[in-house]
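Hey, weird one. I pasted the Major facilitator superfamily domain general substrate transporter sequence into the form twice and got a warning about non-standard characters only the second time. First submission, copied straight from the form history:
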Amino acid sequence: MSTYEKVVMVDFDGDHPQDWPATRKWTIMATIAIPLFLMPLSSTITTPTVNAIADEFHPASTITGPLALSLFLLMYSMGPILLGPFSELYGRWPVLQIGSFFYLAFNLGAGFCTSMTQLLIFRLLSGIGASASLAVGASMVGDVFRKEERGLPVALISLGPVLGSCLGPIVGGFIAEYTTWRWTFWSTSLATGAFLVQCLIVARETYAPVILLRKKAALIIEANRQGKHDGRVWKTPFEKDETVGQLYRRTISRSLHFLGTQPIIQALACYYGYLYGIVYLLLSSFSELWTTHYQMRVSTGALNYIAPCIGYAIGAQICAFLTDRVYRYQVAKNNGVGKPEFRLPIMVPASLLVPLGLLIYGWSAEYHTHWIVPDIGIALPLMGATIIFQCCSQYLLDTFPVYAASANGAVYIVRGFTGFGFPLFSPAMYETLGYGWGNSLLAFLALVIGCPIPFILWKYGERLRAVSNFADQTK
């Protein structure tokens, strides 16, 4: 802590979150991984129960079943636009705990609903609370890990969402066959309650500006207690001369501002959003393939969701093994100077896995081949998407470290709409084009949209960062 005239600068004295012991860092990562797994599981767990819900409530439209998934996904993806800036104002853990409690209340209510309208409203509101983990998860990695250490923790927190969204239908399939659909909500509510109890034990703030604000408040209280009223002004390196209201209005609009003005975020949001829509289109329609076209029981058909789980897991392990190694290799080639663009090389083969897998899945399903072929087909695009999601998250963390939550929030705007919309049009697409041509269309668009992006950012990323007022210029 240093002083100049009557200004006292409050800073870290060796206790920065990035200097914490590895055990504390990984305890925090393991804790945040729980809701990052549980909330996506909650999004897809209702997929095999759509018919059971329809039998009880008799909805007027066939779109109502997929809407229960889409409404949750919309709020799950859009919520960080609101909650991300909150985390930059008040800290990561308060946002995570309050959001999780909000999810718990409305998810539990969905299990007791008496009409389809109530169910859809509860799903919409629970999605907002569920998004808290999404709003702070990637940012917490940037809080406690240095950029050359982020490959493995990003792989961990990225594995939870993708595995959760795949395991959800498996759990839901057995619930649909052996008990009531209401247990899809009650079981996830019980798990969330256990997580909130764990938070009370291990929670520790990770966001440096908030930690210093709390440290400043404690120092002011101590100075007042000792009667040191000498007109000193206490400040932290992150403070600006703004009121809380002004700061909140600025941060809440920053995600939209990023999306409208930052080409890096625009490119990544476009590709990320398209892949996210494809993932949930595949997951929402996968159960229908096995129960209707392959005539399997609900629980047996749900076991095919193990295939996308495997694809996700392999993609995450590839990232955990390669990203930091590739980054360090590129840094060594660049005379020890790191750049965010060094996160991009493994996006190139991953961007080819997506269209390849879609073609295999689509045409094998079209011709009713052995079940293993569609399973292999669906695993490939999910493997590629997992790698791309993690590379995008790491690139954003390195490019916008101070504004990571808002940068991710900008990407979530686009992915929220695609995650909402794609499952709704998939039944009509497959009915009109079939699995073969329907997935061929998706594969072609994935090729056109995705393959050029890593090359464009590799060539022009540094220039784009140089003209940005928000990007970190030190990398």
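That's the output from the first submission. The warning seems to come from a hidden character in my clipboard, not from the data itself. Strands lie at 2-4, 7-9, 233-235.
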